[in-house]
Amino acid sequence: MVLEVGPVLAIVDWFVITSASNPRQARTIAEEVEEQLRRHDGSGPLRVEGADDARWILLDFGDLAVHVLLDEARVYYDLERLWADVGRLDWREGLVDEGTRPGAALRAP
After folding, report:
1. pLDDT given for residue 89 in this prediction
2. Fold adopted by 2-96
3. CA atoms of 77 and 36, how far apart (whole Å)
4. If you compute the radius of gyration of the chain from its CA atoms, what whole number of angstroms results?
5. In this predicted model, which residue has the larger pLDDT, 108 or 9?
6. CA 55/CA 46 separation, integer angstroms
7. More confident residue, 98 or 15
8. Burial of 13 (0-12, 13-18, 19+ CB in 10 A)
């Protein structure tokens, strides 16, 4: 899931939230995200938190924060509910307006 948190959170524009079924898979996902962004534009994370126990790995890329959570941690913390009032990006089809923000123009051109 991709959330547009920039309008309500000054430190980052986007959250990417994904989950894994075990710590090894979580670390692999985090490593692949790093690799793909390096290939795309040469960027690397400014900071990585939580990789040791891999229950919740946070990759901070400045304007983008990637959260890789174990399935049970994702259910427990329920970030989607916590950030229910922000725009969501359908990463398969472009931006969509789910009616969560009045006046938000989220449809991609």
Report:
1. 85
2. Beta Polymerase; domain 2 (3.30.460)
3. 27
4. 14
5. 9
6. 20
7. 15
8. middle
Place of tokens 């931006």: 95
pLDDT per residue as tens digits for the range 19-53: 999 999 999 999 999 999 999 999 999 999 999 99
pLDDT digits (tens, 9 = 90+) for 52-100: 999 999 999 999 999 999 999 999 999 999 999 999 987 766 544 444 4
DSSP 17-83: EEEESSHHHHHHHHHHHHHHHHHHHS---SEEESTTT-SEEEEE-SSEEEEEEEHHHHHHH-HHHHT
| Whole-number Å distance between alpha carbons of 45 and 7 | 22
Domain locations in the chain as residue ranges: 2-96
Of 68, 66, 67, residue with least CA distance to 23: 68
Nearest to 50 by CA among 28, 36, 67, 75: 67
- What's at 45, amino acid-wise? P
